[in-house]
Amino acid sequence: MMSRDAIIAEALGEHRAGRLDVAEAAYRRLLAIDDGDPDANHYLGILLKQRGREDEALVCLGRAVAARPGEIKFRLNQALVLHEAARFAEAEAAFRAALAIDPMRPEAYLGLGVAVAAQGRYSDAEGHFRQVLAQVPDHADAAFNLGIALRGQGRRAEAADILRRLPASAKVLSTLLSTLLELGDNAGAAEVGARLVAIVPEAGTAHFGLARALDNLGRLVEAVAAYRRAVEVDPALVAAWSCLGMAESRLGRFEAGAAAFRRAVEFDPDCAENHYNWGRASQDAGDPAAAEGHYRRALALDPGYPAASLNLGVVLRRLDRAAEAEAIYRNLLAAHPDHVAAHTNLAAVLLDQSRFDEAEKSARAALAAGGDADAHGNLGGALVRQGRAAEAFDSYAAAVAAAPPAGAAGHFRNMLFTAVYRDDLDAERMGALHREFGRLVGGRRPLAVGRRPGGGRIRLGYLSSDLRMHPVATNMLPVIRAHDRSAFEIHFYSIGAKADEVTDTLRGLADGWRDVSGLSDEAAARLIHSDGIDILVCLAARFDDNRPEICGWRPAPVQISLHDGATSGLAEMDYIIGDRWLLPRHTSEFFSERRLRMPQFYVADLPAGLPPPPAAPRSGAPVFCCFNGPAKISPSVLAAWGRILAALPTARLVLKYHEHYRSAPLRERMLAAMTAAGARPDQVAFIADRDEGGRFLARYNEVDIALDTFPFCGSTTSFQSLAMGVPVVTWAQPRMISRWTAAMVSALGMEELIAASAEDYVARAIAAAGSIESWRSRRGAIRAALATSRLCDSGRWTRHLERLYRAVWRRV
Question: Which of 142, 172, 297, 617 suits a disulfide with 776, CB 3.0-4.6 Å?
Answer without folding.
Answer: 617
